[in-house]
Automatic annotation (TrEMBL):
<dbReference type="InterPro" id="IPR014883">
    <property type="entry name" value="VRR_NUC"/>
</dbReference>
<dbReference type="Pfam" id="PF08774">
    <property type="entry name" value="VRR_NUC"/>
</dbReference>
<dbReference type="InterPro" id="IPR049125">
    <property type="entry name" value="FAN1-like_WH"/>
</dbReference>
<keyword id="KW-0460">Magnesium</keyword>
<feature type="domain" description="VRR-NUC">
    <location>
        <begin position="448"/>
        <end position="566"/>
    </location>
</feature>
<dbReference type="Pfam" id="PF18081">
    <property type="entry name" value="FANC_SAP"/>
</dbReference>
<keyword id="KW-0540">Nuclease</keyword>
<dbReference type="GO" id="GO:0004528">
    <property type="term" value="F:phosphodiesterase I activity"/>
</dbReference>
<dbReference type="InterPro" id="IPR040603">
    <property type="entry name" value="FAN1_SAP_bact"/>
</dbReference>
<dbReference type="InterPro" id="IPR033315">
    <property type="entry name" value="Fan1-like"/>
</dbReference>
<dbReference type="GO" id="GO:0003676">
    <property type="term" value="F:nucleic acid binding"/>
</dbReference>
<keyword id="KW-0378">Hydrolase</keyword>
<dbReference type="GO" id="GO:0036297">
    <property type="term" value="P:interstrand cross-link repair"/>
</dbReference>
<dbReference type="GO" id="GO:0046872">
    <property type="term" value="F:metal ion binding"/>
</dbReference>
<protein>
    <recommendedName>
        <fullName>phosphodiesterase I</fullName>
        <ecNumber>3.1.4.1</ecNumber>
    </recommendedName>
</protein>
<keyword id="KW-0479">Metal-binding</keyword>
<dbReference type="InterPro" id="IPR011856">
    <property type="entry name" value="tRNA_endonuc-like_dom_sf"/>
</dbReference>
Length: 573
């Protein structure tokens, strides 16, 4: 399916500015207020009453109170000791705190569990508080809590703790009551819970630089309130499972199949897949096979085949294996299915299936002095002024692709970019990534035939230097390497590599050979480069490396697998 970006109105530049963290002591407050403005503009139709109420109450606070609240929001946890809230730019903490308590944004008498007390106070402080209840006050902190747990098994407000312990509390404790709301606002802004508000500071200080992408009116991660709630529900289930929660309860709490959102359904499927893997490791194979069938993950079918094989269910396993061979979800699945199929045929008394032989791959064997890095040792051994060798692994081909196709990767399609701190489009790893940009990518790749690809890559290299990209690792690319690559790599080979990347970005942007050797003085019409995969003693090719090498061999691309043995080991034998 061909498609191009929708002709929707865009903003010429981001509406969000980043505060100067070196000059403005309340930079964090400016950035937080910008987030609220951003979310209010883009999600006005989706905000619930709690979120609207928080934004209204926050806007009416004194500046110092706003600053204190944001300081707490950006710190870890929801409970804080007042004696540890000291900020010069805020001043009197009690004065700043009073409006927060009055507005119900902070609770100054929260219920605290024993675990919470042990998180907030030091060992010596706890010994002082509970010394009348500790038979062995010199024990480690964990043992102290274990000794107190039978007696102090309920959550109490600080005053009640003081009364129960018979001693005054060392410090006052307050608790944020609005952290869930703030987390939902952060989710709406970033479209995920992985990124923190620290992204603002990293961008301000130049540690991270991001491409400026125009935002369409529908540039947002969530299109409905249900999307937000389902994301939160899935996130909560994942956390509960990883914390050791009951699997049945976690599965019951997951939302039903999400047919109207591919990316949310994929997130849901990853939780199911993680639970299935846990069941498989625990030997609950029947349950694992069932869950793999519902996870929708690319690798789930192969895992289900393996589980069915372990259960002795060879016929259904073979049926799935045959389907994976005929209509594989990826090259990896086809490769793994081909490896399993002969075992299933043997178990069922069937003839061994015909296998397709891979194209032959060149091999070289080297005996070299022992060194810490086998790749570096080979590079230094082979390198010469006439044929320079570089360690590139997955960086060079990805970088050339990322530079040539920069405008397609960063095209402002609806739902791809929804805040200024994205290193790539949100749908990068989803199947629709290429489909929605097919014409844009074909336009970029056409430069390889038109003869303008070198100039395009060089221009992008100069203009975009240091900007975050999912394909360009700037530290691995320099002028010499780029110049030789543009001089020696045939455009037909580049196109083949790039098209393979686009078929499965997650799998295919890894597994490329370690080294590349250039022959800039070789005559036109001969091979002017060679890729070299290095394997040290006892090391074997990984599956993704085998797929890349087989691909190159099929397309007559010069690839060599270099097997190294250490000279000292030769002498010893």
């Amino acid at each position: 399916m061909n498609s191009t970006p929708a002709s929707t109105a865009v903003h010429d530049a981001p509406l969000l500015t980043v505060a100067d963290s070196l000059r403005d002591p309340r930079y964090y407050l400016v950035n937080f207020e910008n987030v609220l403005t951003w979310v209010s503009e883009r999600y006005n139709d989706l905000l619930d009453d709690d979120e609207r109420d928080f934004i209204t109450r926050f806007q009416g606070l004194p500046v110092a109170s706003k600053a204190l609240l944001v300081r707490m929001v950006m710190r870890k946890g929801e409970h804080f000791r007042l004696d540890r809230l000291n900020y010069d730019e805020i001043g009197d903490i009690d004065a700043a705190l009073a409006p927060l308590i009055e507005q119900g944004l902070v609770d100054n008498s929260p219920c605290l569990t024993l675990d919470r007390l042990f998180d907030l106070f030091t060992r010596d402080e706890l010994v002082g508080l509970f010394r009348d209840h500790l038979p062995r006050p010199r024990d480690r902190k964990a043992l102290l809590k274990e000794a107190l747990a039978p007696t102090f098994d309920q959550a109490l407000v600080p005053e009640a703790w003081a009364a129960a312990a018979g001693r005054a509390m060392v410090a006052d404790v307050v608790c944020l009551t609005v952290m869930p709301v703030c987390e939902r606002l952060r989710l709406m802004f970033f479209g995920n819970l992985r990124q923190q508000f620290s992204e603002f500071v990293l961008a301000d200080q130049g540690i991270y630089r991001f491409e400026v992408v125009p935002f369409t009116p529908d540039s947002r991660a969530f299109q409905s309130r249900a999307d937000i709630e389902r994301y939160w529900q899935i996130h909560d289930c994942r956390e509960r499972f990883e914390a050791g929660g009951d699997m049945d309860e976690v599965l019951a709490a997951l939302p039903e199949c999400i047919g109207d959102s591919v990316w949310l359904e994929a997130r849901r499927g990853r939780v199911i897949h993680a639970i299935a893997r846990h069941c498989e490791r625990q030997g609950e194979l029947v349950r694992a096979a069932e869950l793999y069938g519902h996870s929708g993950q690319a690798e789930a079918r192969i895992r289900r085949i393996r589980v069915l094989e372990r259960l002795g269910e060879h016929q259904p396993a073979l049926a799935l294996c045959t389907a994976a061979q005929h209509a594989p979800a990826s090259e990896a699945e086809r490769q793994q299915a081909a490896r399993i199929q002969p075992r299933l045929h043997r178990a069922l008394g069937m003839a061994k299936p015909l296998s397709q032989a891979d194209a032959p791959v060149r091999r070289c064997d080297l005996a070299l002095p022992r060194s810490g890095s086998v790749e570096r040792t080979v590079r230094e051994h082979l390198d010469s002024p006439e044929a320079p060798v570089f360690y590139v692994e997955n960086t060079l081909i990805n970088a050339l692709f990322g530079l040539l196709c920069w405008e397609a990767i960063f095209a402002p399609l609806p739902g791809a970019f929804f805040h200024p701190f994205q290193s790539g489009p949100a749908d990068l790893m989803r199947p629709e990534f290429y489909l929605q940009r097919e014409q844009l990518f074909q336009r970029c790749l056409a430069r390889l035939e038109e003869g303008t690809w070198r100039e395009t890559i060089q221009q992008r290299y100069r203009e975009k230097q240091g900007i975050q990209s999912p394909f360009v690792h700037w530290g691995a690319l320099d002028d010499e390497l780029l110049s030789l690559a543009l001089e020696c790599l045939p455009p037909a080979h580049l196109r083949a590599w790039f098209e393979r990347l686009l078929t499965d970005i997650r799998a295919n942007r890894a597994g490329m050979p370690d080294l590349i050797r250039f022959y800039p003085q070789a005559p036109e019409g001969t091979s002017r480069y060679e890729m070299i995969e290095v394997k040290g003693p006892g090391d074997r090719l990984q599956d993704n490396q085998k797929r890349w090498i087989a691909f190159c061999a099929r397309h007559d691309m010069p690839v060599t697998v270099c097997h190294v043995r250490w000279q000292s080991e030769e002498g010893a034998s």
